[in-house]
């Protein structure tokens, strides 16, 4: 493609920003559990020991998200998952969500939502949990160090994971799934969604062949292959669906390292 054609594409893309939506809010026929990794693969036992499945409840209405264990007593997830919830049940050490190693239930008093959260921006929350001992099926994931706060992670290969259905509109499945993705420059994501949706607090990945996060993966981890660092929290996808080929958006964890340190004492 010529330089002129690339510039024209960028101008058109920036002039017409596409809509995004939180994965858990996409409308699908089956909503008993809203989870999926599209076109991924099943996780083997112990491959993703830092993930938890989270069932949120509010007056009999419930929704499913993911989260990441960052210490013995803290889980990191998305703010739109904790928003309006009365309680959360966390499932640890599971590949099949119905066969978790153990479960803890906490009230909304355990939620700490980032104070500036609004819509798609600053989409990050902490959950204080009972103490959890680590072993091969349940373990923490490291955060980037404070020295890495300005690392864009462009072109890094990363692993996203979550539970559920395997393509748009399909029935849900029970097994944890993974997908390997590549981090793209923020400018490329902004060319599609605009700067209001894809702000500097966002990290985006490419979704070739419909390999993406989707319903119920909200709040789940994006972890680098190199070094195993938690760099993203699943936040949004295109309103046209998870298999549309549009970038998938995550909350950029490095933007919140000081906040996480202040609230939890966890830092590197």
Automatic annotation (TrEMBL):
One of its GO terms (biological process) is proteolysis. It is found in: Secreted, Extracellular space. It catalyses: Preferential cleavage: Arg-|-Xaa, Lys-|-Xaa. Residues 37-265 form the Peptidase S1 domain. GO terms for cellular component: extracellular region. One of its GO terms (molecular function) is serine-type endopeptidase activity. Its EC number is 3.4.21.4. Residues 1-17 form the signal peptide. The keyword Protease applies. Keywords: Disulfide bond, Hydrolase, Protease, Secreted, Serine protease, Signal, Zymogen. It is an enzyme of class 3 (hydrolase). The keyword Secreted applies. It holds the Pfam family Trypsin. Belongs to the peptidase S1 family. This is trypsin. The lineage of its organism: Eukaryota, Metazoa, Ecdysozoa, Arthropoda, Hexapoda.
């Amino acid at each position: 493609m010529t330089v002129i054609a690339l510039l024209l594409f960028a101008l058109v893309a920036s002039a017409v920003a596409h809509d995004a939506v939180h994965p858990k809010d996409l409308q699908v026929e089956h909503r008993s559990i809203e989870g999926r990794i599209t076109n991924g693969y099943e996780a083997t036992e112990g491959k993703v020991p830092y993930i938890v499945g989270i069932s949120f409840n509010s007056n009999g209405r419930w929704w499913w998200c993911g989260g990441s264990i960052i210490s013995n007593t803290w889980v990191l997830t998305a703010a739109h998952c904790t928003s309006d919830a009365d309680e959360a049940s966390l499932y640890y050490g599971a590949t099949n969500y119905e066969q978790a190693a153990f479960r803890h239930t906490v009230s909304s008093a355990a939620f700490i939502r980032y104070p500036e959260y609004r819509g798609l921006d600053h989409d990050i929350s902490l959950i204080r949990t009972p103490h959890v001992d680590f072993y091969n099926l349940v373990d923490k994931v490291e955060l980037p160090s404070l020295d890495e706060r300005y690392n864009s992670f462009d072109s890094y290969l990363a692993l996203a994971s979550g539970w559920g259905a395997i393509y748009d509109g399909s029935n849900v499945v029970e097994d944890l799934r993974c997908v390997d993705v590549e981090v793209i420059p923020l400018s490329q994501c902004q060319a599609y969604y605009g700067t209001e949706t894809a702000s500097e607090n966002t990290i985006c990945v490419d979704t070739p062949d419909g390999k993406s996060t989707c319903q119920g993966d909200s709040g789940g981890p994006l972890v680098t292959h190199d070094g195993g660092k938690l760099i993203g929290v699943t936040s949004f996808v295109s309103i046209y669906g998870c298999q549309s080929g549009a970038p998938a958006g995550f909350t950029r964890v490095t933007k919140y390292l000081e906040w996480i340190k202040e609230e939890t004492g966890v830092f590197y």
